[in-house]
């Protein structure tokens, strides 16, 4: 199982290329995938990322959610998976982030990769800072309500 942790801010060049953090590349390549899979959900301030297998899991979650409602399921699959991108690493460990996804997430000259367990998120650094500021109180309350979270 893939597992992503930590945050890394990388430059984005004029062509939209960015270096995928070496720790994330190693995790993906150890899982047998030499690239990243991205998808963007309208209204979110970030792009979701992982490996190709995660998109299959994502598809199965959609399928299970809608069961027999084929027209709705098809529309959701079309929107979410049809807008996905599977990107291979170049010789320098970079990928070219799709312009439409970059624009939707507000990513310009820098991107922050944030590990969230079985996947990761790509954020504009400024948007991530706002999200962190907005969630400080919630995080403190959540941590206080999870018994033994940091106990050994």
Core attributes:
single chain, 152 residues, alpha+beta, Chemotaxis protein chec, six-stranded antiparallel sheet, two-stranded antiparallel sheet, 5 helices, 8 strands, globular
The H-and-E topology, N to C, reads as: EEHEEHHEEHEEH
Strand order of the largest sheet: 1-7-8-4-3-5
| Mean pLDDT level | 90
User: Nearest-angstrom radius of gyration?
Assistant: 17 Å
- The domain count comes to 1
Residues in β-strands, percent: 15-25%
User: Alpha-carbon distance between the termini?
Assistant: 24 Å
Q: Looking at this structure, what is the CATH superfamily?
A: Transcriptional regulator MraZ domain
Quick structural overview:
By secondary structure, the chain is an alpha+beta fold.
Protein architecture, described:
By secondary structure, the chain is of the alpha+beta class. The chain has one domain: Transcriptional regulator MraZ domain (Chemotaxis protein chec). The protein is 42% helix and 23% strand. The strands form two sheets. It has a six-stranded antiparallel sheet with strand order 1-7-8-4-3-5. The chain has a two-stranded antiparallel sheet with strand order 2-6. Helix 2 runs antiparallel to helix 3.
Any chance you could write out the topology, listing elements then pairs?
Blueprint: E1 7-11, E2 17-19, H1 22-30, E3 35-39, E4 46-50, H2 52-66, H3 70-82, E5 85-88, E6 94-96, H4 99-105, E7 110-115, E8 120-123, H5 125-144
Helix pairs in contact: 2-3
């Amino acid at each position: 199982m893939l597992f992503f942790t930590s945050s890394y801010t990388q430059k984005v060049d004029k062509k939209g290329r960015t270096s995928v953090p070496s720790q994330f590349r190693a995790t993906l390549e150890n899982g047998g995938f030499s690239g990243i899979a991205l998808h963007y959900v309208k209204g979110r301030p970030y792009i979701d990322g992982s490996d190709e297998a995660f998109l299959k899991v994502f598809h199965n979650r959609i399928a299970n959610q809608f069961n027999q409602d084929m027209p709705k399921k098809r529309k959701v699959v079309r929107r979410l998976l049809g807008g996905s991108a599977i990107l291979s690493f170049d010789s320098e460990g970079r990928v070219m982030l799709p312009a439409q996804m970059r624009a939707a997430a507000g990513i310009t000259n820098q991107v922050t990769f944030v590990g969230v367990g079985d996947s990761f998120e790509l954020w504009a650094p400024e948007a991530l800072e706002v999200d962190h500021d907005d969630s400080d109180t919630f995080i403190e309350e959540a941590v206080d309500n999870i018994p033994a979270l940091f106990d050994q």
